[in-house]
């Protein structure tokens, strides 16, 4: 346990000193800020009179200037954007060891490789939680500053639970990215994998089978394209968990048995 905590502290220091943490937070925080822009346009159509594209976009999203719609936007930001942004974070945590040529130094440390992998997983989950909490705080604060109508405590708590679970489902999809970053020995392969999963989720989701594609489940759960939780069931959650466990298992196996010196 002591070696695991030491490994976690080392990984935490790496993440804390990296500027990419702030970039990932800023990327998802753009969602509530765009929501604030839509609210402003809906309240003041004259502001977008010269920008038909912005007016059309606000109308196409079905967005309304009230609390339920604004909280749904935050949940969808984590359900859709979380898969991408969390995937980038996972790619950086493992891919940087190969990009910076620190992997060979890590492998000779008196800490088991399995411990290192789980320490990276723990820090990645912490990173995802920080992003989700920050986005939620920014979104809720923005909503209060806008003076949105429709506030109800019960609905607010239900929306917070949906935001939390949407973020958790997206974070559970990080382990497969761990494996691709390790097997690909860097960032590029894993970043391509993240984009590929989003494309696959979009295509299969359009065919009506998104509930059985792990990378589409967070978006469907968050309410994208339907009501909250629409289309997903217990099988969807099991598929996400199996995907996560498979990603961790293959990553641990790769770190312990693959030839890391080629």
Quick structural gist:
The chain is mostly helical. The protein is 76% helix and 0% strand. The protein is elongated.
Q: Would you mind describing this structure in some detail?
A:
The chain is built from eleven helices and no strands. With 262 residues, it is mainly α. α2 runs parallel beside α6 (113-146), α4 (67-99) packs antiparallel against α6 and α8 runs parallel beside α11. The protein is elongated, with a radius of gyration of 20 Å. It starts with a helix and ends in a 5-residue tail after the last helix. The model has no long low-confidence stretch (mean pLDDT 84).
> Strand tally, please?
0
Compute the separation of the termini in Å.
31 Å
Helix content percent band? over 70%
Q: Could you say which overall geometry the principal axes of the C-alpha atoms support?
A: elongated
User: Low-confidence parts lasting 5 or more residues at pLDDT below 50?
Assistant: none
Share of residues in strands: under 5%
Our count of helices gives 11
Radius of gyration: 20 Å
Average pLDDT metric: 84
Question: Helix- and strand-based class?
Answer: mainly alpha
SSE ordering = HHHHHHHHHHH
Q: Largest sheet, if any?
A: none
Q: Which terms summarize this structure?
A:
single chain, 262 residues, mainly alpha
List the helices and strands and how they pair.
Elements: H1 2-16, H2 20-43, H3 52-60, H4 67-99, H5 103-107, H6 113-146, H7 153-171, H8 175-184, H9 187-206, H10 217-222, H11 234-257
Helix pairs in contact: 1-6, 2-4, 2-6, 4-6, 4-7, 4-8, 4-9, 6-7, 6-11, 8-9, 8-11
């Amino acid at each position: 346990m002591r070696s695991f905590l030491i490994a976690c502290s080392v990984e935490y220091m790496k993440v804390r000193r990296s500027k990419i943490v702030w970039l990932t937070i800023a990327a998802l925080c753009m969602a509530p800020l765009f929501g604030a822009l839509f609210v402003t346009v809906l309240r003041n159509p004259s502001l977008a009179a010269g920008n038909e594209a912005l007016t059309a976009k606000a109308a196409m999203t079905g967005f309304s200037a009230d609390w339920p719609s604004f909280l749904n936007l935050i949940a969808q930001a984590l359900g859709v954007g979380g898969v991408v942004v969390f995937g980038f974070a996972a790619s950086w945590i493992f891919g940087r060891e190969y990009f910076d040529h620190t992997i060979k130094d890590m492998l000779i440390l008196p800490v088991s490789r399995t411990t290192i992998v789980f320490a990276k997983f723990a820090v990645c989950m912490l990173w995802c939680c920080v992003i989700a909490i920050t986005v939620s705080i920014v979104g809720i604060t923005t909503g209060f500053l806008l003076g949105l109508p429709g506030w109800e405590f019960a609905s607010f708590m239900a929306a917070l639970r949906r935001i939390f679970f949407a973020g958790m489902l997206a974070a559970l999809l990080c382990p497969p990215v761990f494996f691709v970053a390790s097997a690909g020995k860097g960032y590029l392969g894993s970043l391509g994998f993240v984009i590929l999963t989003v494309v696959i989720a979009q295509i299969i989701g359009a065919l009506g089978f998104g509930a059985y594609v792990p990378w589409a489940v967070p978006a469907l759960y968050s309410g994208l394209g339907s009501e909250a939780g629409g289309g997903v069931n217990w099988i969807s959650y099991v598929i996400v968990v199996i995907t996560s466990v498979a990603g961790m298992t293959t990553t641990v196996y790769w770190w312990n048995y693959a030839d890391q010196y080629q």
